[in-house]
Amino acid sequence: MPALEQTHPDSNAKELFELFFSFKGRVNRAHYWKVIIALFLADVALEYLGPLFARIVGPIAVELFKAAFALAAFFPSLVTIIKRLQDCDLSGWWMFAPVAAIPVLVVGSILHLSSFLMLGWIAFGGLSIWLFVQVGFLRGTVGPNRFGPDPLGEAQPAMQLQPAGD
């Protein structure tokens, strides 16, 4: 029976800290979805349990707790999105691509140009959809890239089909 590998408790804490608070490295789609779903479920639980806790501790305390949770969840979700982009060999700055449409929306609003507003909303929606698909559904770069090793492990060679009957 092989000996169990002993790890120092601080190394696990460091790994966890780097996973959620460091912009270095890459994460795969499974990690991304685990973070997004966990934060979504926590938010839903806070919304539904909020009125119950408001009777006990008061509505202001509940709202303060919800705001603190939102602030605490913001940075790890930002890091996770950036690491997913890095997994696809894209800079984390691509996360702000939908923001590029805001000047078009502002000009359209100020000048009352409906065509600018339409163009701005189309650009914003299109860039948002691209970002969602890129981060949530497309596989990252196979093998290492400039942001680190493949989070799914080393690249496997493509399976070769052999002719039958040899």
UniProtKB/TrEMBL annotation:
<keyword id="KW-0812">Transmembrane</keyword>
<dbReference type="Pfam" id="PF05656">
    <property type="entry name" value="DUF805"/>
</dbReference>
<feature type="transmembrane region" description="Helical">
    <location>
        <begin position="32"/>
        <end position="50"/>
    </location>
</feature>
<keyword id="KW-0472">Membrane</keyword>
<feature type="transmembrane region" description="Helical">
    <location>
        <begin position="119"/>
        <end position="138"/>
    </location>
</feature>
<protein>
    <submittedName>
        <fullName>DUF805 domain-containing protein</fullName>
    </submittedName>
</protein>
<keyword id="KW-1133">Transmembrane helix</keyword>
<feature type="transmembrane region" description="Helical">
    <location>
        <begin position="93"/>
        <end position="113"/>
    </location>
</feature>
<dbReference type="InterPro" id="IPR008523">
    <property type="entry name" value="DUF805"/>
</dbReference>
<feature type="transmembrane region" description="Helical">
    <location>
        <begin position="56"/>
        <end position="81"/>
    </location>
</feature>
